[in-house]
Records
---
Amino acid sequence: MNSLPRKAAISKAILVDIDNTLWDFATVLYEKLRQLNHAVPPPEDWHCWDFWKGYMDASEFYRVVNEIHSRQEEFGIYPDAPEFLRNLKEFGYHITIASHRSEDNMVPTLKWLNRHNLVFDDLHLSYDKTILFPRCLAVVDDSPHVLSKAVEKNLVATGLEFPWNRGNGFTLHRDLFHVFNFLKREFSQDG
């Protein structure tokens, strides 16, 4: 892999998603969507992120997503999330937590990050993470759309493996320990 764009990045910044990267958003989303329509399939059958189409309209779906994000501080984390972020920090990376959510959810998101002692340098909430790509080396996300755009920009694109991102050509992992080791190997090749 060509390492020139990585070395040209402004800093050693890594974008880290929240939903389905630092916590199990899919399970909570599924439970909430089932309250609207019992026919919604379980996460193991979400073979694309637009799985919800045909079960409800976009306004209902995004209302549920926003409701979950507004209550973020009520939810737990993946057990390996704190160590993953600490390891990135110890290796000198600038961690930008970047989530596809409304800026109105800044307070509950910050409370959740702090409650779980998740280390980070910046928090970016918006509906377009790609604006941050010019200043980063890697993207850790579950969205095949975000990962594809990162690859187009010659960034390291990785994350946890789920049915909706499987088979898209990304290097995906079963846990954050393996994500960290992959990133460590990728960047040790840069010298």
---
Amino acid sequence: MKYQLEISGKQYELLVKNQGPDLQLFFQGRPVQFDYEKIHDAGLYSLILNGRQYRVWIDQEASN
């Protein structure tokens, strides 16, 4: 599944692939190491990419 991200006003592409029970992430076409945890049912996650932590909000309406 592809997502469009906006970070500091710039657009990026994030590709999420299911590999059995695991997920793979590709940011701008490059694989990234990650971990995540759902913080709130409203779409708030804690995402760790390459050792840095980010808060991520997923807009469920925009992803449909």
---
Amino acid sequence: MRHKKTFTVFSSLVGLIVLGVTFSEVSPSKDRNLKVLPKDISDAKLDSIMQTYNIALGVKCNFCHLPMKGIGIGIADSLDYAADGEPMKEDARKMMRMTIEINKTNFWFDKKERPEYLHTVTCKTCHRGEAYPED
């Protein structure tokens, strides 16, 4: 009987975790300010794309995103991702539009894939881990 209860609790926890992961991959957050990437992008896909930007430019999220007002520095996830106050964020959007256009014009062979998700030419193509690449 004890094993049955343990199994039931374990199964319930696994089920909740799976539902949580599935939900986060399908259901986008409400607090967004997407002007280039698709509005229906999943949280998981958005996070993945943003992490590739971090690596490609050798920066952290605060390079484009401002701290939330009224929250102390150093508190986990204290950035206001929807705010547009940081000018670098608009520069990033321009660069995103540029790479999307390059890929769409030159490498969009599979029309089932959205051009925003093509990755033939990426930030890393030019930046190579540097926020401000040399000419």
